[in-house]
Amino acid sequence: MIGEMDADMVVGYFGGKSILITGSTGFLGKVLVEKILRVQPDVKKLFLLVRAPDVESAKLRIQTEVTGREIFLVLKEKHGMGFYDFIDEKICPLAGDIMHENFGLDTANLRELSKDIDIMVNIAATTNFSERYDVAFDANVLGAKHVCAFARKCMKLKMLLHVSTAYVAGEQEGLIPEKPFLIGETLKEGTHLDIESELNLIRETRRELKANCSSEKAERRTMKELGLKRARQFGWPNTYVFTKAMGEMLLGHLRGELPVVILRPSIITSILKEPLPGWMEGIRTIDAVVIGYAKQTLPFFLVDLSLIMDVIPGDMVVNAMMVAMAAHSEERAQTIYHVTSSLRNPAPYAILADTGHRYFYDNPPRTGRNGEPARLNKMRFFSTVARLSLYMAVRYRLPLEMLRLVNIALCGVFSRRYDDLSRKYRFIVQLIELYTPYSLFKGWYVRVKME
């Protein structure tokens, strides 16, 4: 079906449609909202669900965090003085949250929406790899459940599109097919996942923390550790991809006859073409490593430069979303799409390392007090955990331990220095642990359907 569609057919599909979008204040959400309004001004209405105490606050958030951003400059130029009237006509703010049943909307609002909505797009999620388990579960698992329940109440719904991540595949190697997760399925042989039991575990842990009068810091640490522990027990590398996989399971299990598309993009990067080439907002997945190198706070990293870096521009993801919605409208089935580049346009990590070094060499960041350019050293790369561990032990852990002993002997003279170096060391260790499943990833995502 996708192969039979052209751009005019896709754009035409959205004419006269009412679309509910969650996660519009995020990077991908902004790109989608702008794209629809720019290419299809005859869209009937975009209902944007945002966290806010009331509609006026929701409207203000949309004005400042969505339509007020640089990505809407092209649309502003197109409409001129009529831009704000156009936005007011097409965008309807909704104050709510996917973490609540019915998004926390009142009965009257719910009844009207259920009559109007043609398409639902769920982008809302927490993407923090090491998020608290309770927070990630609420957003990525219960959020998906509530979106599905709401969609089933919409009388004329033609499509529910859910944005997941290609990395729900965990650390699998070789060709990874576009197949759905069955309820209870895991990535570790001999284990079975009970989502209800995970929710009960979270609630019980919360009760214990409250009973023990735990500090906020201790509670945060405990819930983060619980998420990582549960993810790894079932074969996923971190809390983010684990909870996104559970969200997919619930959607597939509860959708009934709903037409559902689950989109699994890989690492989303800046815009390639439209409307502003190179536009990016916030620190994306691989940006932390690039920034760490630019500031010279990350002198080394764990990555096999010969492996494929699977990245995909944000505007290409949005294009895929729109095509998939149009292609599968009113199909009473679930369809999975990988939106990835590893097979179609493979690029090794060596390209990022080389171009990154050349860029910052020609455009050195000014990090000194007087704005002097930073002196850049080439980042050192380790292709195996064993080599990196040996290097870190000799280069960092041993000197740190010696400094600790000297500090004790001198009654804490070097306490400040020791604490500062320990903090930096822990940051690097944590960063490497979080990124290892991606920097050493040996899978290739099959995208038969998208072709």
TrEMBL record:
GO term, biological process aspect, one: long-chain fatty-acyl-CoA metabolic process
EC code: 1.2.1.84
Reactions it catalyzes: a long-chain fatty acyl-CoA + 2 NADPH + 2 H(+) = a long-chain primary fatty alcohol + 2 NADP(+) + CoA
Start and end residues of each Thioester reductase (TE) domain: 21-321
Keyword presence, Lipid biosynthesis: yes
GO molecular function, one term: alcohol-forming very long-chain fatty acyl-CoA reductase activity
Domain of life: Eukaryota
InterPro entries linked to this entry: FAR (IPR026055), FAR_NAD-bd (IPR013120), NAD(P)-bd_dom_sf (IPR036291)
Keywords: Lipid biosynthesis, Lipid metabolism, NADP, Oxidoreductase
Entry keyword annotation includes Lipid metabolism: yes
The protein's enzyme class: oxidoreductase
Entry similarity comment: Belongs to the fatty acyl-CoA reductase family.
Record's function text: Catalyzes the reduction of fatty acyl-CoA to fatty alcohols.
Protein name in the entry: Fatty acyl-CoA reductase
